[in-house]
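Let us begin with a simple case.
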Amino acid sequence: MSGADTRVFHIEFGSTDYGLRAWVTGTNGTLETTLACWRAIADEVRRLSPFGLLVVDDMEGVAPPPEQLLEFVQSMRGQGMEAVRIAYVEKHAEQIPEVEFAGLLANEHGFVARVFADETDAVRWLRYGER
């Protein structure tokens, strides 16, 4: 990225009883965009140290291709996300298989993450789910 802010996404953060909620909008489709988005979320997680994190992905476009998902997960190690339970809501149902694959990779690499199609279920897991 150049010195100018060329983000193609927007994140709206909010504090909740289960931790932090991040609502992400904009356009995705590249590893670079995904990494920039998640690094911005990680910055807020490090700043606030919430127990739980709900990410509501309402971005247009597609997830990075499967061959880049491992690189994404490995790039997030050490960013402070290992200390927080992550509930990820994919608003575009057709993308859930790719996102679930990324979730499996994340869990294999020390993160506690789960993918949901419904925000109510995700919040329930953050509040009451197995710890």
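The second case is a distinct protein. As before, the sequence precedes its structure tokens.
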Amino acid sequence: MVTTDHGPRVEVTSAAAAVLRRLRAAHGPLMFHQSGGCCDGSAPMCYPAGEFRTGESDVLLERLVVAGVAEPVPFWMSRAQYAVWSHTRLIVDVVEGRGSGFSLEAPDGVRFLIRSRLVGS
């Protein structure tokens, strides 16, 4: 897991946490993966834990602790995308509107997105 002296690498807004609690109740343990591809590939995708296979081309950035979710939610990112975003703190948020990916929240008419803040190196 990637560590930083500037706090957690990935955070979750209260709105995103509420969606994660709903998704956890419906689907069991969860995980995020952000590939960095175009369109929805640049959005974090939420899957049932283990449904998206990670490997050497991925980096585990954080195990998100979300109040009301029994276990931490791992947040993975492609290694190539991490090289671009390595000096940022990622904030998982949620907005109205459907993405076109396979992320679990899509049927609810919302989608996760990333907001970011620069952090020192």
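The longest strand covers residues 88-96. Helices lie at 14-27, 79-85.
Keep these points in mind for the review questions at the end of the chapter.
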